[in-house]
Amino acid sequence: LARRVRQLDEEAQGEAKRRARNLVADALQRVAASHAAETTSSLIELPSDDMKGRIIGREGRNIRTLEHLTGVDVIVDDTPQAVVLSSFDPIRREIAKMTLLKLVEDGRIQPARIEEMYYQSKTEIDEHILQAGEQAVFEANCGDFHEELVKLLGRLNYRTSYGQNVLKHTLEVVHLAGLMATELDANVKTTKRAAMLHDVGKAVTHEIEGSHAQISTQYAKRYGEAPGVVHAVEAHHYEVQPQ
After folding, report:
1. Is 105 exposed, middle or buried (CB count within 10 Å of its CB: 0-12, 13-18, 19+)?
2. Does the pTM exceed 0.70?
3. How many angstroms separate the CA atoms of 199 and 197, rounded?
4. CA 94, CA 72: separation in Å to the nearest integer?
5. Model pLDDT for residues 225-239, shown as the tens digit of each residue
6. In degrees to the nearest 10, what's the CA dihedral of 131, 132, 134, 135?
7. Could you give the CA distance from residue 198 to residue 217 in angstroms, rounded to a whole number?
8. Contact at 8 Å (CB) between 98 and 114?
9. What stretches of 107-226 show up as alpha helix (H) in DSSP?
10. Which residues of 135-153 are buried (b: 16+ CB within 10 A; e: fewer)?
């Protein structure tokens, strides 16, 4: 009888593992998507090589102004009709890219004009970030989030991790988590909200010390998420990494 009990227990465990693998594989197949390439530089095409001199400016005053405002390295080298913007911060790089494109199109490149175009571009990017966050919350369909969390989610649209757009990855995790929660009779809303916030710390890891999971947990607590959501986000720090 004891041997039979052990045998049934082993069979049950084996069947459970098999069904779990099939469940995850099925969920993955439903939301399979292509990945974005990770990069730390942007190439800006110019109408002519003469524009390089205007970007540099007299005694380098224009390029210094642009680098000081944006926090991005502007590399003017032998690449024909192009300059390179380099930064580990993708949002700063995007603002610098937009600023430079506006200046090239306008043709008037001098410190005061650079500053004007920079603040215009920064405002536009802030609006894009908010729109991206609001759209993500709508697609996740798991309730409203604090405005600051919405902005952080929008910033993820400009971040990549392991070659994948982080906001896109977040929405994939939300859908996967929702499917698995449904199959397991777990609380779908709590699961999806935790999935929505599990990587939100990546939006500011270059500004705040600590792992992205720890930062995500801090933000979830700060903006009033339920204990179950906070716990799940924090537990993400202890996930098993693939070998």
Report:
1. exposed
2. yes
3. 6
4. 10
5. 999 998 988 887 655
6. 110
7. 8
8. no
9. 111-140, 147-155, 166-183, 188-197, 212-222
10. bbbeebebeebeeebbbbb
